[in-house]
Each structure stands twice: as structure tokens, then as C-alpha cells.
Amino acid sequence: MPGTVLLLAASPVGRGCLVDAASVLPVLAAVAPSVLSGTETANVVELADPLEPQAVLTRLRAAATAPGPLTMFVTGQLQLDRRQRLPHLALARTTPATVRYTAFPWRWVADELRLRPPGSTTVFVDLHADADTWDLLAGRPLTAGPSTELYGRVAPPPSRRTVAQPAYMRAVATLLRSGHRPSPAQLHQQALTRISGEENARPGAADLVLAPGRAWAGQPWPPAPEFTTVTAPPHAPAHPPHPPVPPSVPPAQSVSVPSVQLPGQAGRRGGPVSPDPHEEITAAVRDGRHDDAFALAARWEREALRTHGSGSEPVLHWMEVRADLAMFAGDAERSCRGWLALAANRLDAGQAPGAPEVESAVDRAHHQWGRIDDPARARELGAELARLRQRVPGRREGALDHVRRQLSQLQTQT
């Protein structure tokens, strides 16, 4: 199966630039696509100094939904949204005062990759952090989500009036130009060995090294706090109250993990099951079986509700998955309803209106609402969105005014 490769190099123009990110792209582009991806053939997408966060999101989303392995090479600098305390990948127009509007939120990477099957996604990064982000990462490590292998380094801010070089990514590209592609872990270690002399000679703090299972500040590497790895409960009921999986969604046959069961599969015989329901869901989406994927996610949500209770993170996770699945299916109305419900549940669970997860849910509901064609449905959901926007205005000014203007126009339509 062909692979997908996304090459992304981004840094601000002018005095705010910490690293010459784009300088590594010619070296990476000289590597054969099959070597970059580790597959026989691959599609390569290159983004050099993009201007708009939405342009990056569009390319990332397309890569994340492509079948086959995905490998990302990301070079650039991290800057902090000081209001929400979230790291962003700085783009060409980013300044310290405009991070939240002109930079790409790093959490969007994990957002877009979370439905990919474990083991199918590898991300290599060479990032330089500004002072605020560097301090934040000392206690909250960077991650690309629980099912993504993340390798690379985050370097501290260079000395003033100095533009750093992406030495780690250049080492990765140089190693791959030989035509041999070692395993990601071996490639990562070889690249670190190549740049070890540079790091030792540089004054200041040592790089923060990223690798699966690596200790961070002496503690086991944790998953991102905003993501929860959801599995079936250890004691599934023998006769669950849910209907069985539709016949068109066969159980996965690749991995045998008897202790992990899909809801409704307790007591079945005659075949191993997948340890992660996201794999089946992703396969159904790729096959165009959107209703099957939605039904399976809904059953996991019901199981999480029964086991963990309303407002729990597993329930909220599956609500988010269902809203995303509706978007993938092109059902803007169902997706909008899902994001609205998720935002309301997070607020009811005591999360603050300014919490990133709450704002993200409302922003996505707003986006999907704008894609609803039926005026009556749009009016109904627009009124609900307006009420929610009063509590969660979001980071972009004028969001509530936009909803009200659109609702006013919809009132004139039949």
C-alpha cells in the first residue's frame, strides 16, 4: 500500500525567526519518496513557510485520512499562546503578539492523527522553542497523541541575534539519502549521534529528546493530558444491553488480545479481536462505511457511559469521535449537533468556558454549522450555537456577532 509523507518547515519572517527551518527541505526532497516513507511507493506533500494555519490544517487532515502509513517531518519553532498556555508552531506571519491567530496549534496535530491505527504514523520533529514554551515543556512534554510514534528534539532558544540550524532534521535527511531506511528508532538514534558534538559545544540547556517510552525529567513519558486512551472495560457483561455489531463490520483478525473485548463480544468464540476499536472505525471510514463506523463509536460511547458515567473522559472522547465521523461522512448537521453536545457536556462537567477542549468543540460546531444547507435545520442549530457562544466566545473576535448575522439572514429564507 502506498505511503504518505508530509514535509513541513515553518518559521516566522524577520527578527522573530529562531531557526532556518526551510533550509532542510531541499535535503529532504532529495530523498526518494519510498525511503522517506518506508513503503514501495509514496505520495509526498511539501509545505514550505506556510502563511495560514488553515492551510496547514487542510494538508494535515488530508494526510491523516489517507490510507497506508503516514510519515511526517516537521521543522520549525514553537511559540506559546500566553493566554491559554498552549504551544503553537509559528508560521511565516507569526509574532509574539499574534500567536493565537497566525500560528498552528500543536494540539491540532494530535487532534487529526488520533483516529489513525496505532503503528501506522511516525512523526520526526526538529523544533526550537521560545523561552516561554521552553519553560512550559519542562513539565508538560510535547506529544502527537497516544497512537503516534514521535521522535526528534526540542532545542532551547538560541542566543540573541542568532538563527539556529535544524541540525537534527538535516542529519535525518542525510542518513536517508544513502537509500537505506532503518527503523524509526534506529534512525532517530543515529541522527542524535551525528549531532551530539554540536549539542555538547553549544552553551546553555541540553535539547529535550522525544522518543516513545523515553523518560522526561526522570518520570515515565505520559500521554498528552487532553487525550485519553480508551479501551473496553476489563469485565464486559456476558449479555450486554446493546445490539451486536452489524454484520458488515467484521472483527479485526490481525492481533489476538483476549483481555480486550469490543462491547457485546464477551463470551464469543472463534477468533481474535482488535485491541483498539479505533482500527475498525478507521477501516470502516476508509471503506466508505460511515454508518457502520458511527454505530460502532456510538456503542463504545454507551459502554463508556455505563462503565464510567456521564461527563467522564471516556464518554467525552467517544462523543468527539462521533462528531468527527459525521464530518468525514459529509453530514454537517450531525457533526454540528455532536460538537454542540460535546461542548455542553464539558461545561456541565465543570470545565471552564475558556478551556481549550471546550473552545475547540464550539469552534468546530460553528464551522460545521456554516456547512448546513437546510435553512430550517440551520436556524434550529444556529439558535443553540448562539446561546453557547454567549458562554464560550472563543479566541476569534466577532464569533457571536457572526452567528447572529447569519441567523438574521436565515430568518428571511423559507
User: What's the pLDDT, averaged over the residues?
Assistant: 79
The N- and C-terminal alpha carbons lie at a distance of: 49 Å
Could you say which structural class the secondary elements and strand pairing correspond to?
A: alpha/beta
Instruction: Please indicate the percent range of residues in DSSP E strands (runs of 2 or more).
Output: 5-15%
Number of strands: 8
Q: Mind telling me the C-alpha Rg?
A: 22 Å
Low-confidence stretches: 214-274
The percent range for helix content is 40-55%
Order of helices and strands: EHHEHEEHEHEHEHHEHHHHHHH
Number of helices: 15
Main pleated sheet: 8 strands, mixed
User: What is the approximate shape?
Assistant: globular
Descriptors:
414 residues; alpha/beta; eight-stranded mixed beta sheet; 8 strands; globular
Characterize the structure shown.
The protein is of the alpha/beta class. 42% of the residues lie in helices and 13% in strands. It contains 15 helices and 8 strands. It has helices spanning 25-29, 33-37, 53-65, 99-102, 107-113, 131-137, 167-176, 184-201, 277-286, 290-308, 313-328, 332-348, 356-369, 375-391, 399-411, and strands at residues 3-10, 42-48, 70-81, 86-89, 104-105, 121-129, 149-155, 208-210. Strands 1, 2, 3, 4, 5, 6, 7 and 8 form an 8-stranded mixed β-sheet that branches. Helix 12 packs antiparallel against helix 13, helix 12 (332-348) runs parallel beside helix 14 and helix 13 (356-369) runs antiparallel to helix 14. The radius of gyration is 22 Å and the shape is globular. The model is unreliable at 214-274 (pLDDT under 50).
